[in-house]
Automatic annotation (TrEMBL):
The active site is at residues 13, 41, 139. GO terms for molecular function: adenylosuccinate synthase activity. Its EC number is 6.3.4.4. Homodimer. Its cofactor is Mg(2+). This is Adenylosuccinate synthetase. It comes from Streptomyces tibetensis. It catalyses: IMP + L-aspartate + GTP = N(6)-(1,2-dicarboxyethyl)-AMP + GDP + phosphate + 2 H(+).
Amino acid sequence: MPALVLLGAQWGDEGKGKATDLLGGSVDYVVRYQGGNNAGHTVVVGDQKYALHLLPSGILSPGCTPVIGNGVVVDPSVLLSELSGLNERGVDTSKLLLSGNAHIITPYNVTMDKVTERFLGKRKIGTTGRGIGPTYADKINRVGIRVQDLYDESILTQKVEAALDVKNQVLTKLFNRRAIAVDQVVEELLAYADKLAPYVSDTVLVLNQALEEDKVVLFEGGQGTLLDIDHGTYPFVTSSNPTAGGACTGAGVGPTKISRVIGILKAYTTRVGAGPFPTELFDEDGEALRRIGGERGVTTGRDRRCGWFDAVIARYATRVNGLTDFFLTKLDVLTGWEQIPVCVAYEIDGKRVEELPYSQTDFHHAKPVYEMLPGWNEDISKAKSFGDLPKNAQAYVKALEEMSGAPISAIGVGPGRDETIEINSFL
Ligand code: GDP
Ligand code: IMO
Ligand code: MG
């Protein structure tokens, strides 16, 4: 019963899409378990580049069944346009399975996301504006709409009525917006029902049966550990659990089934949206990381904030996820620096702190304590084995491994499928 979780160890955009796609050819199922189309996962196959938002990256591997689990929030228009976009490029998407229990991002959830952010002004989270937070809020508040509701018009109407009851008051009285008509929403949602019907299934049953039959299941996280609603830099987080436990609740698979948890770790750090980021750079080094690393959001096109590697965060990710391995990505981007600073601890109010402080105030005050590691100039993009890397690049990887608390089992040296050094096999 080999079930693997692959998740972001930092603030997202670590290269999860590439890593998932790489394993996709050897696994039977790839499952998204949380988040929605706030994610932007890039996969490069040969000269083709794909940007996936809602579909699991396994969709590009013909032998693999892609699954959208119950923990995901689904915008039907985005899902259908992503499917047709892939079909136009010759990708077979017919195997997709969509949980009937997944919640739907309705048009009013998208509206609420946007108006709330505007209302927050300079205190805004910097969300992707895709309706993620309000949809999860409705789910927890028990006024959410699920995929299965599209197949019972009467229930759907009652649920949309319940959801809009309070929201329309807020929209009209607080945000000075027009009320949203129940009929219009119901009509729009019902129009998706037939188109989604071929994919809707009992994904919990399918996945558990697959595991009993010794099939290999890979869970692909969206976002990252520090964006987790419980374990991230709250309130500057997303509204779901990208951490390993989220794979269990978001797919209906028990923790005893998970055999490996792989943290995707960028060789430096990036973040999109607001919130604390101790190693953030505001100088030409930050600009160079952004330029060389192509650090621009796949979903919103926003420039990503860039900074040096933060080992405190990596250690934290190891702990809260029970990581068994790291997949280190974008090592090639660091080529050309004479020395590379790595944050080994924080200084908070004059004291050295080795672990991530639980207090938000302390984290906001954290200043990075850097250790300088020697850089390299050789092109590493063609390296196929660890031994092919220049000595200083090897030492950088070894130092990160020691500081981060789990073995680095693969190294990305370029965006392509084959631009990867495998050290320990994942399967
Ligand atoms: P995700 O959200 O975690 O899937 O990551 P994104 O796709 O948002 O951002 C990662 C970016 O880095 C994408 O443009 C990838 O094609 C690219 N990428 C992934 N791994 C590597 C690598 O090892 N080297 C380089 N240069 N680029 C990489
Ligand atoms: P992938 O899967 C990076 C960030 C947003 C914002 C916060 C909340 O590509 O790594 P939300 O719309 O989720 O309510 O926004 O979370 N965020 C991401 N940052 N990568 C992502 O996904 C993200 N998904 C959400 O920028 O700060
Ligand atoms: Mg991304």
